[in-house]
Amino acid sequence: MLGRILILVENQFRDEEAIYPYYRFIEAGYDVKTVGPEAGVEYTGKFGLPVKSDLSPAQVDLDEVIAVVIPGGNAPDKMRVNKDMVNLVREANNRCRVIAAICHGGWMLVEADIIRGKKVTGYIAISTDLKNAGATYMDQEVVTDGNIVTSRKPEDLPAFCRSTLELIGAYYK
Hints:
Blueprint: E1 4-8, H1 15-27, E2 31-35, E3 42-44, E4 50-52, E5 65-70, H2 75-79, H3 83-94, E6 98-102, H4 106-111, E7 119-120, H5 127-132, E8 136-137, E9 142-145, E10 148-151, H6 157-171
Parallel strand pairs: 1-2, 1-5, 5-6, 6-10, 7-8
Antiparallel strand pairs: 3-4, 9-10
């Protein structure tokens, strides 16, 4: 295995924004684990996809983690009120791990206060939130700034995963 990638889940995640990266990163040789507010709980996607969390935030060893992926949907709105989920993102950023957020996943970046002075993108409905958090919003399929990769919507998933893998490769050669 090349390293561990975490995908954050909570009820109402955007199904394809969790499952596409999950299998893409496994295909690339990474150990992919899902992290929910509680370990061993089944979380249901916006369109009904069930995903059982492998770990809770308290069980994560960031020394083993190279990236954290945050799918969109309504889940980030639920996750951002969970201090353990937010602290996981903040601490991963503090340790310069790759942080990748798509669609509404940017809400977790706002809550973790890690995008001030960064260029980002996200679903158009949260563009004002991203700007109010001190970021420069760019309407592009993918934006990479430092250790953070962001994308707007499901159609951007190929560019999102490709850019995330490229950044991981640059950080962990």
